[in-house]
Specification:
Blueprint (H helix, E strand, L loop, with lengths): L2 E6 L8 E6 L2 E8 L2 E6 L13 E3 L2 E3 L6 E2 L16 E2 L1 E4 L2 E5 L16
Antiparallel strand pairs: 1-10, 2-3, 3-4, 4-8, 5-6, 6-7, 9-10
């Protein structure tokens, strides 16, 4: 498993998210009550940027049409048949790292770990 550092943990407070770019790909990184979660940035409905959405009650709301996603599992609450991929995350030396290995895409993040 290859993890890539993407942001300082202190730069993403609880309830906040952002779009990040790694190796020509785009991801949405969220802090859900202290747990860092990473999902595909593209909403499967109309391609909205999930990293620019709003976190409401632990769910990300797509800024274009309001589809709701659980960033911990990738489940779509609006259309259960349209989930997004999740990527494992961890925190090492104060940096959030994500694993974007293709064979691991879709697995739920194991949660943050402080190493």
């Amino acid at each position: 498993m290859s993890f890539v550092p993407v942001a300082e943990a202190s730069s993403l407070p609880p309830g906040q998210g952002r779009t990040i770019h790694v190796d020509g790909r785009t991801f949405a990184l969220w802090n859900v009550e202290g747990q860092f979660c990473c999902i595909d940035d593209t909403c499967p409905h109309r391609g909205g940027p999930l990293g620019a959405g709003v976190l409401e009650n632990g769910s990300v709301c797509c800024p274009l049409h309001g589809w709701m996603f659980d960033p911990r599992t990738g489940d779509c609450l609006t259309r259960p048949d349209r989930p997004v991929k999740t990527y494992p995350t961890r925190v090492v030396d104060g940096w959030i790292q994500i694993c974007i290995d293709a064979q691991l895409a879709g697995e739920a993040s194991p949660g943050s770990s402080n190493a």
